[in-house]
Write a structure and sequence with these properties.
By secondary structure, this protein is an alpha+beta fold. The protein has a single domain, classed as Aminopeptidase, CATH 3.40.630. Helix content is 28%, strand content 27%. The chain has a six-stranded mixed β-sheet with strand order 1-2-3-4-5-6, sandwiched between helices. It starts with a strand and ends in an 18-residue tail after the last helix.
Amino acid sequence: MNIDIDPYLLRADSPSVETYLRLRVVSGLSPKTVEAAEAGLPNTWHGVTVLRGDEPVGMGRVIGDGGCFFQIVDICVAPEHQGRGLGQRIMSELVGELERRAPDGAYISLIADGDAQFLYEKFGFRQTAPASVGMHRTV
């Protein structure tokens, strides 16, 4: 499925390894290794890539177990294309697919960096604190 967002095209697919690595870095997300991207990207439950012409300029993915738990990850847009509603369009597509295909009662989480929380709130996401807090660890 392709959706025109003149002059952009939103394509439902997982990004290539090269695109994934580049967009994470240029948009300010933490870098990942080629090995990690090659192992992780095939496990995408649903992904979208935003193109301007042939150039990928944004992306987002849903990962999870396909039934009980899902996580929205890798929402990013290259800086020179920000401020044009592309992040909102990426989220709209990901949340729409979750609403269509995820089972009733599925738990959907994400980590909001900085002001991104205001975008995610528009899609019904709420902070979990004080009832629970997000935690993380890297290896």
